[in-house]
Amino acid sequence: MKIDESVSAIVTGGASGLGAATVKALRDLGAKVAIFDLNPENGARKAEELGALFCHVNVMDEASVDAGFAKARAAHGQERLLVNCAGGGRGGKTIARDKTTGEIKQFNIADFEWVLGLNTVGTFRCIVKSAAGMATLPPLEDGERGAIVNTGSVAAEEGQVGQVAYSAAKAAIKGMTLTIARDLANEGIRINTILPGIMATPPMLGVKTRAPAIFDSLSSSVPFPRRLGKPEEYADLAVTMLRNGYFNGETVRLDGAIRMPPR
Question: Cα dist. 37→32, 151, 197, 225 in Å?
C-alpha cells in the first residue's frame, strides 16, 4: 500500500516509545495520523509536535475506544492503517515463596486478567473496530482495503521468570495473528505482528538512569548489534509491513538475535 497524504492511520500507545516513533514515520510519509493514548499530556504534546490528532483512549474500555475511532474518523476519514502499540505488564511468579517465612504467595489473578485485558483484549478490540471500518472502503490495487500491525514481544516465545502474565498476553497476540489474517482475507485486510526484543523505550531508559550497570548488562546481552533496539527500527519494520502488500499473517522478531535466558 502506498502511504501518503491520502491515507489515514491510527496508532495506539502513540504518545511515546515504539508508538511515537511509528507516528513520526507515518507522518514523514504524509499520512494523517491519530494517536490513541491514555496519557493526555504526553499525547497532546506528541500530537502537536508531529502534526497528528490526539484521542484520549483507554483500549480496555469499549466506549472509550468507540469515541476515539469516531473522533479520528471525523477528522481524517476512515483509516486504512492501524498499528497497535498500547500495552504493559505486571510482574510476578506463578507462585513464590517468602524468603524469610517460607509462606507460599500466589500470583494475583486480577493482575493476570488486567495484563491480558490491556495487551490481548485491548489489541483485539481495536482490530475489530478498525477492520469493520476498513471493510467499508473501496479496494485499492490487488483488492487491498487496509493493513494492521500488532506489537507482541519476544516474551511470547521466551518468557522469563516473573513474566507469566505478560508472556501469556503477548503469546496470545502472536497466536491470533494468522487466524485474523485468514478471517480478513476476503475483505482485503492484512495483519502482521512484531515481537520486539529489548528496546530503548522510556521504561528501559529509566533503568539506564537508575541502574546503569544493569542497563549495560542488558545491552551487552544482545548478540549483534550489542545495544538496545531503537524505536525507529520498530517503526521502520512496521511501515514495511504496512506497505508491502504480500506481507500477511506473519509474526517477526526484532531483537538483534537475542534469546532470553530464564532470568
Answer: 16, 15, 22, 31
